Amino acid sequence: MSENTPKPIYNDFQEFYTQAVLPVKEANHAWIRLDGKLKGNTRIVFGSFMYQDKKWKVAGDTQFEKLALVFAELQKGNDPFVIKHTRDHQGETLTIKGQPVRDARFYVYSA
Q: Considering the chain, what is the average pLDDT of its residues?
């Protein structure tokens, strides 16, 4: 998929994880993040999914470990997400319940 090709919007997080995240992780076992980098932030949107009737975009610097944690909680029937305002109050971000706010390594924003 090229940079200019629109990325699909998945119906929910589980679909996003199984169809977009897992194939990348399986093809790149050594990667820690979706973008394959070790550090630094990025403005690259890896993919999007729907949650509570909103579109959420996942940044490329999100770590696989955090995505797997969310997927596992959803598989148990738990809702792992908390919606919070961004620091500038111009948008919203999803955080994981019980996870530290600082250095979260989970970067999901309302689209």
A: 92
